[in-house]
Design a protein that fits this description.
By secondary structure, the chain is an alpha/beta fold. The protein is built from nine helices and 13 strands.
């Protein structure tokens, strides 16, 4: 006997809630109803999906495997229903978008008001995280990824590229002098990333023509923090253009070693699962970003 969508939904919600009681509240069911659905599912599959203890629930190996497929099945059903509804109505419903905090704050937030005016029926939920997340597990519709893509289960749409620049505040350069060559950087305060070490590869070449990898004098875990440190005159930083448009236009940051900087960019993509079942809301948001970001924030 095959499992039902109700049983799969109960199982996934129990996992997400961490308890049968929590799942019952989410699904507006009784605790006994959720428990029976879970028991029926395990009987049909002839396996144990969850180990139950007095304190917590723990997925078995079979449970991990089934959870992955159940999420996809439930998401596909939701998308199919939405696709039919979208044909007959104005775009509406929830759209959850994930991006790195720096890109969300500095590139997406400034244009989000225009999107809301165009599509008032769409409820946006903006989620930020410095690490890549599982879109299905976090129920994210679209994610903005910076850099090269490695997850083959995702579809991607390129939005553009953001050039990298080496920058410092005029105040810092007045106090410490502007470096005249790459070797001079060794005598300066260098601002870099503490966790994402590949972002400490700067678009410069040493005397042997090799790319420069800096060891930060002062490190931080996020781009916005490094931006604020640079604005405060704490050192020289390498950041993508989308983060520094305003302070460069205002003269609060200036280029360092511009004639020796190699043209290097960060790839900016919007990624998602299941292109054929993409909701109208997601398509509209992607089209909007592709219209509004290039030229201002991306090349």
């Amino acid at each position: 006997m095959k499992s039902t969508l109700e049983e799969q939904q109960a199982f996934v919600t129990v996992v997400d809630s961490g308890s049968i009681t929590g799942a019952a509240e989410r699904l507006d069911m009784t605790v006994s109803g959720v428990s029976r659905a879970l028991n029926r599912l395990e009987q049909k599959l002839e396996t144990t999906l969850l180990r139950r203890t007095t304190r917590r629930l723990e997925l078995t190996e079979e449970g991990e495997t089934f959870l992955h497929h159940a999420r996809r099945i439930l998401a596909a059903v939701d998308d199919a229903e939405e696709a039919i509804v979208d044909r007959h109505s104005q775009p509406h419903g929830r759209l959850r978008v994930n991006a790195a905090p720096s890109f969300m704050q500095l590139a997406i937030v400034p244009v989000i008001g225009e999107f809301r005016v165009r599509y008032p029926g769409i409820t946006l939920e903006l989620d930020t995280h410095d690490r890549f997340i599982d879109l299905l597990e976090q129920r994210v519709d679209l994610a903005i990824r910076i850099g090269e893509l490695e997850d083959s289960s995702l579809h991607a749409r390129l939005l553009g590229h953001s050039p990298l620049r080496i920058l410092a505040s005029p105040g810092y350069l007045e106090r410490h002098g502007a470096p005249q060559g790459v070797d001079d950087l060794a005598r300066h305060s260098l601002l870099g990333f503490s966790q994402l070490d590949h972002l400490n590869d700067w678009p410069l070449l040493d005397a042997h023509g090799q790319p420069i990898h800096i060891k930060p004098t002062l490190a931080a875990s996020s781009g916005p923090t490094l931006l604020q440190l640079a604005l405060a005159g704490e050192g020289i930083v390498c950041l993508a253009d989308y983060m520094t448009i305003a302070p460069r236009q205002q003269g609060h940051l200036v280029d360092v070693l511009p004639n020796q900087t190699q043209f290097r960019t960060q790839r900016i993509s919007v990624v998602y699962y299941r292109q054929t079942a993409l909701s109208q809301r997601a398509r509209l948001f992607m089209d909007f970003l592709a219209e509004r970001l290039p030229g201002k924030y991306l090349v």
